[in-house]
Amino acid sequence: MNRKQATETFPEIYERIRSQSPPHHFEFKDPFWVLITTIMSHRTKDEVTDRAARNLFEKYGDAESLSCAKYDEVLPLISKVGFSRVKAGRVIETARIIVEDFHGDVPDELEKLTSIPGVGRKTANVVLADAFRKPAIAVDTHVHRISNRIGWGKTKNPEETEEVLRRIIPEQYWLGFNPMLVEFGKKICKPVGPKCNECTISEFCQYYKNRGK
After folding, report:
1. Does the pLDDT of residue 209 top 70, yes or no?
2. What's the mean pLDDT when you consider all of the chain?
3. Radius of gyration of the chain measured on its C-alpha atoms
4. pLDDT average, residue stretch 7-12
5. Phi-psi group of 14: left, alpha or beta (phi > 0 → left; psi -120 to 50 → alpha; rest → beta)
6. Which of 34, 3, 195 is nearest to 106 (CA)?
7. Taking a C-beta distance cutoff of 8 angstroms, is the pair 188, 194 a contact?
8. What confidence tens digit (pLDDT) does each residue in 132-161 have?
9. Helix ranges (DSSP H) in 41-137
10. Residues 106, 27: Cα–Cα separation, whole Å
11. How far is CA 102 from CA 17, 57, 106, in A?
12. Span 183-202, mean pLDDT?
């Protein structure tokens, strides 16, 4: 699918995906807790991440309290998330940076967010879109996989996928794009055993067209 085709067919594909995607659950709306939750989400199921973030919120409540937390007290609260030993230290350090460098307020600029150690473009874009409602496209494993399967691009990593999507997707669709594809990826376009026979965008999908070749 070339860029012109991708741009022309995007609105139809978007609406069909939206019709098959359940509402996405957001555990928090507060920018700080969206940031902390997203940091912990790598290689972890959403329900596990949300539970860990809720544990932290209930014990500490805000950035200042978490910045003063002890590692050995944080670790048990998030022990179920992937790489919990690394993330326990990271969330404390992130809280400290927010308090000391940003006066307790999570920045709403990509460059400032990505200046925080451990915060990449995906995490920063999630915070911008979901917490600040600023147009941004966060590319996680679901968005990367689905975009390549459809044929919007042939990219090797999420950063390349973001560049492609920013070129073909009108900005009016950016907000909510990531949560929609996350749910579509969990329900229909699964990593293993995608439900192509139930999918409403099969006629547009390069992965479906190339099956069995």
Report:
1. yes
2. 96
3. 18
4. 94
5. alpha
6. 34
7. yes
8. 999 999 999 999 999 999 999 999 999 999
9. 46-60, 63-67, 71-77, 84-102, 110-113, 121-126
10. 17
11. 38, 20, 7
12. 96
Full set of structural domains in the chain with CATH: 3-23+138-210 (1.10.1670.10), 31-131 (1.10.340.30)
Cα–Cα distance between 123 and 137 in angstroms, integer? 10
* Predicted pLDDT at 37: 97
Reported as type and span, the H/E element at residue 17 is: helix 3-20
The per-residue b/e assignment along 174-186, b for 16 or more CB within 10 angstroms, e otherwise, is: bbebbbbbbbbbb
**Stated length of the chain:** 213
Which residue has 């147009």 as its token pair?
135
**Residues 52-62 pLDDT 10s:** 999 999 999 99
AA letter at 169: I
Half-sphere exposure of 128 (CA within 13 A, CB side): 24
Tokens linked to 141: 């494993």
